Amino acid sequence: AVDGLTPLVKPGQAVRLPVRLINTTGAPLGAGAFHVRVPAGWSVEPASLPTSSVAAGGEAAAAFTVTAAATLPADRLQPVIVRWRDASGDRAVMTKQLAGAPAETDIPRLLTANANYPAAFPYRVETGATYRYAAPRSGQVKDPVDPGGRVKEGQALQSGFGSMGGERNSFNRGGYVKSHYARYAEPVVEIVFDLQARRELARVNLVCGPEPVTLTRLQVLTSDDGETFAPQGEVAPVRPTQELELSLDRVAARYVKVRAEWPAAGGTLDEVELWGW
Description:
By secondary structure, the protein is mainly beta.
């Protein structure tokens, strides 16, 4: 789910919904019933369940089966409302949020070979992506290379500079090499990724190196020929941050230009991730 906590359900999936009423009033509750209301297109069995009287401090429990609609938008909250009623009306209300699970084909894949994602990571595609610097053009930009040879020149932005093992932002942790991030002598850097084939893009994630110069703007442009680029979006953080994400609406392209801007020379990058299909 979007929040990482809400249970996900697939279209048409049936899930068990346990409910519990705890009497905190200090007096007995008379007989009543649980009633469940589900979103349009969903169903619930049974629609209600009776309860006997509940002593002070006691509880009543029941379980329902909720079945999701046959068509379900991904990651949209779907409230299931449970009411407990007695002769006087509603006495307790509970809401259980569910969300539609995205279809397998809708889950973005990692298109760059970032080392902090293991080979067994299920959502990655081996595209053979490479990159080059389009700006500055003076040739003074050169990726740091691990003396041990674990990170090769021209691959570092996909491997994580800090730990040389793929742990992002590891320059902030003790015991790691703290010098292997890219620091730029110009306030604007353009990096062109070649995905080796036309791909649909979902988002670009950019991880900065250490401060004090913080990123002020991230722009993404795309191209089919690697020469003529069209802007697809940009983001400017309202406060200093070390990680930025720019969403793209399934833009199709082979080449992706990432344009990063700082207010002055000395900006740093640790890693760039491209996601899509």
